[in-house]
Design brief:
mainly alpha; elongated
């Protein structure tokens, strides 16, 4: 049984060439480059979600951006 599944992805010709060149340069397969790109995309999305949640929580508590440095310093015991 395969531990992975084949997925078709359409890319414009210039992007295809760039992915192929990058894969060759890094001695990786195109699949590995695409997988890494997705991992980075997913990590960035997760970070955006955390930031959005933090902004929402801060707003609910009346915390302004100008308060952040002071709060961080207080949390560090300074």
């Amino acid at each position: 049984m395969r531990s992975s599944k084949v997925v078709s992805v359409s890319l414009p010709p210039d992007m295809t060439k760039e992915v192929q060149e990058l894969a060759k340069e890094e001695r990786r397969s195109v699949s590995e480059v695409i997988r890494e790109a997705f991992r980075q995309y997913a990590a960035n999305k997760a970070l955006q979600d955390v930031r959005k949640s933090a902004r929402k929580a801060a707003k609910a508590k009346g915390i302004k951006a100008s308060d952040i440095d002071r709060i961080v310093q207080e949390g560090r015991g300074r």
